[in-house]
Amino acid sequence: MKVDQFDFELPKELIAIRPAPSRDGARLLVVNGNELKDSQVKDLPDFINAGDLMIFNDTRVIPARLKGKRRDANMEITLHMNMTGGVWKAFAKPAKKLKLDDVIKFDGGLDALVTHKGDAGEVTIQFNKTDDDLGDALKEAGVMPLPPYIASQRPIDERDEEDYQTIYSKHDGAVAAPTAGLHFTDSLQRALFDNGINSAYVTLHVGAGTFLPVKVDDTNDHKMHEEYGEINADVANLINETHRRGNKVVAVGTTSLRLLESATDEEGVTREFADATDIFITPGYQFRCVDILMTNFHLPKSTLFMLVSAFAGFENMKAAYNHAIDSGYRFYSYGDSSILMREDQT
To answer: If you placed Cys at 251, which of 82, 194, 281, 290 could pair as Cys (CB 3.0 to 4.6 Å)?
Structure first.
């Protein structure tokens, strides 16, 4: 499909630069085919049945944006994917003058050696620290990597250290939050449990590539960046048992969905998974695992708007976004949310 088909006009004032006062007090748009219903996140248990299984991404965002110096030049590095052993893929600005074997120096004695240069500012760097030592150094030298559409409008501050993290985050490694999960509170999770709704956790370390614009004219020409994810055998078995009973699997966020679809075969069987995925979902994709998707509102011409259009129907999502804009829903990472029913099941 042509990328321009996924474009829409969004008033700047609808871009949320702070979350709602209470996480589950955000608005929730329910999309069921061509039917739309306005609600709130705290009412989520009303739209999911007992016995259904909600899958949460328990990745934890690290302070992945670093400012340093290469000789006398200022550099900004945004980490993208952990390659282990202190090696990271990253995006560098400015990247043109950066050369192989250059050393970038950050605060707290943290250095990074450039070992590879790729396209569009992507580099591979080797830090002089590893494991917990590197984690501690990043906390000193780095800041929370808020998306460009927020960071360009205001400074990053201490509030973001809590706001841009899910309450159930566990495994360090993401450089962007799984933002649908930002809406959950302890009380909402208790309400889901009390209603007989099951839950399980997977891990997909979200990369900075999620914010990169699609620069091609046709979706067939776009290449996704890889992200590392894990689903253990117990969770895979729970997913398969949920489907065998006739219940639904609910992905909290596009990150959970992409990992679940990567781990599920053409017969609909989900298996243990520990690997990188670069799955790119556009209209025409046949979903294998996820039946319901909870997700925030995404950027025009983004891979995520393409994904939700594939899931709930292209025309349905165009209508849903028009309704959201007309109704003043707040967009993007700190914005409101939606729950989408899969088009081929409505």
So the answer is: 290
